[in-house]
Design a protein that fits this description.
Arc Repressor Mutant, subunit A; 8% strand; elongated; three-stranded antiparallel β-sheet
Length: 359
């Protein structure tokens, strides 16, 4: 099982929050072993262990034991993850919960096949609980309290003035698996509802009616666009868990150098050449096949875009000799790269309206 990861938007937002409260950014990064480039794009992945180390460093550097709770109170999921935007564009709170479950791995990915609903509805004794099922919340107080504060404060702000929300206050009570912290007063200030610590579950008690509360800013067009992007991110996340996917991600930035070798990639993965060979073989491929197919795919992409010349494409996919690239391209497609470029140009000229410059 691979190490759990979290979207880079979380550590990026936490660093901004902790820095605003006096923590030194460089020290936060050094303590957590997170590099600035790791969090440039909020949809990238960061090992969860580094994020937890970051929060622990922030608590110490700010001298504020409730820092994770305060971070959750002040941050919104819509600003951290695409999943928050999808939830906001849903039609009802229950639809938002279903979609958050669908894309939960884009927020926190623990690679646990046993979990199908990260936010599970549990009905018992006439009560409705929204339960956080992941053991990661049960195992880490900082992660749990920030997630609960973000969920509840975000919902209260989002629904605020709606009539439905005033009828169904959210939540009615909260249960935590961790023991009562020294800063319980902050919990009471943030949540303002009955709290139970040392419980058997991390869960929110709510009214059934809350599930049908309509979102004040639902937008089906935006929802469709965001969902398509989220599906692509899910696919990319899944690919990153295969050794082939990891090899491809490491090849991409060095492909143009023409020096991408199995030894280099094995070193970046922290594996021996023999181990990398065996793991690729287990997935039915070789390093040479992965490299060749990646070059093929990228060559079609570059030439299909019509903005890169054949010689430039050869360079970008790692061929120092354009003639060698042409031979490889003919092996891949049965035709030479210039033929593809010519056919693309013909298609453009015969398209309705003529070429772009004349449309």
């Amino acid at each position: 099982m691979s190490e759990p990861t979290i979207a880079a938007g979380y550590p990026r937002a936490f660093i901004d929050f902790a820095a605003a409260r006096g923590a030194d950014r460089r020290t936060l990064l050094a303590r957590s072993r997170i590099r600035p480039e790791d969090i440039e794009r909020q949809d990238d992945r960061v090992p969860l262990s580094k994020y937890v180390a970051l929060m622990e460093a922030g608590v110490e550097l700010c001298g504020e034991p409730a820092l994770a709770l305060l971070f959750g109170e002040s941050s919104r999921l819509q600003d951290i993850s695409i999943v928050g935007l999808i939830g906001e564009a849903s039609e009802t709170t229950e639809e938002a919960r279903r979609h958050i479950n669908r894309y939960a791995r884009l927020m926190l990915d623990e690679d646990d096949a046993r979990i199908s609903n990260h936010l599970e509805l549990v009905r018992e004794g006439g009560k409705v609980w929204l339960k956080y099922t992941s053991h990661l919340y049960a195992d880490n107080r900082l992660l749990s309290e920030s997630a609960f504060a973000r969920n509840i404060c975000g919902a209260r702000e989002h629904f605020g003035a709606t009539n439905d929300f005033s009828k169904w206050p959210y939540p009615k009570a909260i249960h935590f698996t961790h023991q009562e912290p020294s800063y319980r007063a902050e919990y009471e200030r943030v949540f303002g509802v009955p709290l139970v610590f040392g419980s058997q579950m991390n869960a929110l008690l709510m009214d059934e009616g809350f599930l049908s509360v309509r979102m004040p800013r639902a937008n089906r067009y935006v929802f469709g666009v965001l969902s398509a992007h989220a599906e692509a991110l899910l696919k990319s996340l899944e690919n990153s868990k295969t050794i082939r996917g990891r090899v491809e991600s490491l090849l991409m930035p060095v492909l143009h150098t023409g020096e991408a070798s199995m030894d280099m990639i094995a070193g970046k993965l922290g594996l021996s050449r023999q181990t990398l060979f065996r793991r690729l073989k287990a997935e039915g491929v070789t390093f040479e096949k992965v490299l060749d197919e990646l070059r093929h795919k990228l060559a079609l992409h570059y030439l299909g875009g019509k903005k890169v010349s054949v010689n430039e494409t050869a360079y970008l996919v790692g061929f120092s000799d354009p003639a060698a690239f042409s031979r490889a391209f003919k092996r891949w497609t049965g035709s030479c790269p210039r033929t593809l470029r010519a056919s693309k140009a013909d298609d453009e000229r015969t398209a309705p309206g003529g070429p772009p410059a004349l449309r």
